[in-house]
Amino acid sequence: MNYRNSLLALAVATAAGTAPAHAIDLGTFKGTDLSFGGYIKAEGIFEDPEGEDSHFYGRANQTRFNFKTVTQKNGHTIVGFIEGDFYGGNPTGDDPDWRLRHAFIRIDDTTVGQTWTGQWWAVSYTDYFDFFAGPRGTLGGLNFRAPLASYETHGFRFSAQDPVFDDADTPDLAVNYTQPFSNGSQVIFTVSGREAENEDYGVGAAIGSKIMIGRHRLNLNAHYGDGLGVFTGVGVGGAPVDVENDDLVTQMGFNAGFQYVFNDQWRANIAYTRTDVDDDADTRYEGQRVNVVHNILPELEVGAEWRKYNLPFGGLIPEGQQVEVMAKYRF
């Protein structure tokens, strides 16, 4: 499978956080509202890998564009959404190619197509700049989208997804329940299930929470279960995935983040993540980050982030520290 609202606000959320979506209204054609959106992001990254020489590089691959249609007809609301970025080809930033992120149809409360997995919706996110490893260690860790069908009703979201295990007999499943509160806080309960590569069925659970403290925000997340490494990005090693000695591997993890809002132009975030895997190596992942963001205009922001990871992330993110400076223009 490709590791490649509410719904639309988050579908175009930036990897630097959950700023509100922007879009350019293109008008109405034959009863359908058309809009175009996205952002341009430029980033410079100083990397200090553990045991290796440090270096600096720049890229703009996270830049993305989306197109949305909304039609009201016969008492139904039909939304079409397509979005891509430039992380196709070599994802490290060289020779960027267009890559499909989202392509879905939403009819009232039902969504079909490629978009966020049900596991991604389990997490209450703190602003992060790192597109690849920012939410690593949570159920949104691999930040991937899958062909799926989902249905929402009374706070529940039911998702049936293209399975990670190619020979699975059943789709991967997720059930989310979100309980909102009047001050903007919320709690998310999630159950995840999938057939793993040893043909056992792995089940996991997660809880995510956003606690509003005036203008500030505390995010707490935790997960536990089997077959979750394909979502968290921790414990994923070659094939078979989430399986060792022909047994499913259990993992548990937590994430805590806090956003402090100075005023309408300045905000800062700090976050810590830890995930422990019950494998032969007793794998433990830890990640930390601190960032500050300045909105020069509502559509234009700049920022800087320090982050550190104790485990590499494939060939994309090394063990060690990074410092990123970025500028992003949303439209």
What is the SS-derived class? Answer: mainly beta
- Average pLDDT metric: 91
CATH overall fold name:
Porin
> How many separate helices?
2
Radius of gyration: 19 Å
CATH top level class name: Mainly Beta
- SSE order: HEEEEEEEEEEEEEHEEEEEEE
Task: Write the CATH architecture name.
Answer: Beta Barrel
CATH superfamily: Porin
Key features?
20 strands; 16-stranded antiparallel beta barrel; globular; Porin
Map the helices and strands.
Elements: H1 7-11, E1 23-29, E2 32-49, E3 55-59, E4 64-73, E5 76-89, E6 96-107, E7 110-116, E8 145-153, E9 156-161, E10 172-180, E11 186-195, E12 201-213, E13 216-226, H2 229-232, E14 243-244, E15 247-248, E16 250-261, E17 266-277, E18 284-297, E19 300-309, E20 320-330
Antiparallel strand pairs: 1-2, 2-3, 2-4, 2-20, 4-5, 5-6, 6-7, 7-8, 8-9, 9-10, 10-11, 11-12, 12-13, 13-16, 14-15, 16-17, 17-18, 18-19, 19-20
Describe this protein's structure.
- The protein is mainly β.
- It has one domain: Porin, CATH 2.40.160.10.
- About 5% of the residues lie in helices and about 60% in strands.
- It is built from 2 helices and 20 strands.
- The longest helix is centred in the first third of the chain and has 5 residues, at about 5-10.
Summarize the structure.
The chain is mainly beta and 331 residues long. The chain has helices at 7-11, 229-232, and strands at residues 23-29, 32-49, 55-59, 64-73, 76-89, 96-107, 110-116, 145-153, 156-161, 172-180, 186-195, 201-213, 216-226, 243-244, 247-248, 250-261, 266-277, 284-297, 300-309, 320-330. It has 2 helices and 20 strands.
